[in-house]
């Protein structure tokens, strides 16, 4: 009986175990566990400001951040835009009915619904909001490392490999995005960054970590150039508002009884307003005058000639330069040059009442005007009926029938620059950039962030390792390799090796003794032929392979080459090739004259000779 009872008891226990394990196969419980796991993973995928700030105690960003960007470059090759990159990880449509679905189908549907929820909640997540606010903080203290800026900023490495300046918004953005654990979160955060860029533009707030009024630096990456355009356009809009208000105030003052009284008495009124006397003796207000143009005087009235405030030229990033160059070479159009010339003529007429075409040519294109002998000495007493030929003459091309200059002069009106139709539409330019950010190719975006962060880490390490003969030699080898690789067409094939170079430098900073030990061990095993190998082969030295094998792990980061980077870092080649078209048009263009006053202080040095172009 006891034995039977024991058997019953054992049988009961087995039954209990089977019942206890039943909930494991319950679909509702399984779905609940899936949701909880996704919540936990989503929370872990978003880096915290505190964690990023704590990481700044290390001399350079961790190599894991660079690895994540490298993985994103490889994954981004499969999609054409960031929008597609986000959508590519989504599951099937939620319109499917749940009834009759298998457990695996229910799981996929739950994942799909949860991902959509994560996407909608991502922008409002507290960590994300805090990250965005810190990244765009005007103080610029976020992710700032305790390095001496006077020493680190002298490095030319970021410009050598087409990266971004140290401590710039691009570098900080690269470090933040590289700290996300999933590609989906990386792309969603970029979308949130674009929203913040739109907000700054609409509120006319400058982007932090970007100069407020610098023209695009063609030696930096395209992303940094576009950030520069946004800031520069904000500055231009602010200056345009101030200039317009100033001109309106000037006109209101001139409409008072002062001008009427001056015309009655024949005396030029004193004060901030500038007037010019016509041949009839009438006083006319100068509009948009900047400053006297040396000792130049108007031929018919003898009044001092003033350089006008002119419109600023377009802000050209490297991609726009290429597009414009291709358009000009394909169509032969010089429309931009004509528009600039007409604008400058109108501004000159407004600033110099009573002027003639010859006055404009003398100011704008001195080579197209020749003074007659003795004309300078007799100028003050020879106005009125003296013929033009006794004071000087235009060049032969200017005297030809149907000359474009004369046609434009006859159609131009005296209009100050601030009242003219803009030659460069800041609103349209920035909106185009922001729209391009939404559709940017993932591999292109992450590639620029990768190079910017790579150059940032190497620039800091270069300063810290300076003076250490042993480590400096090893560092210079690594630096030479990344410069050669980033400037070559093989950059996209060498992402893995670039990460390994970064890991080597990271080891040199964090554990210099071990780095030196491994360096000496490797040198002792190298053959004479191996020690003489150069980077011209396109392969890292054997020492690099050994160091990266020890410091960075055995496995390769990537399995196949990433997409080709289309950024050209040769500024002189871009500008020279674009300008060469106009140099060949000697019959249309000539040298630029002395630079007249500008509507705004910072002026874009155009590749197009349309900036004060002689046509």
Automatic annotation (TrEMBL):
<dbReference type="InterPro" id="IPR026147">
    <property type="entry name" value="Rab3GAP1_conserved"/>
</dbReference>
<feature type="region of interest" description="Disordered">
    <location>
        <begin position="584"/>
        <end position="615"/>
    </location>
</feature>
<dbReference type="InterPro" id="IPR045700">
    <property type="entry name" value="Rab3GAP1"/>
</dbReference>
<feature type="domain" description="Rab3GAP catalytic subunit conserved">
    <location>
        <begin position="286"/>
        <end position="438"/>
    </location>
</feature>
<dbReference type="Pfam" id="PF13890">
    <property type="entry name" value="Rab3-GTPase_cat"/>
</dbReference>
<dbReference type="GO" id="GO:0005096">
    <property type="term" value="F:GTPase activator activity"/>
</dbReference>
<feature type="region of interest" description="Disordered">
    <location>
        <begin position="368"/>
        <end position="392"/>
    </location>
</feature>
<protein>
    <submittedName>
        <fullName>Rab3 GTPase-activating protein catalytic subunit isoform B</fullName>
    </submittedName>
</protein>
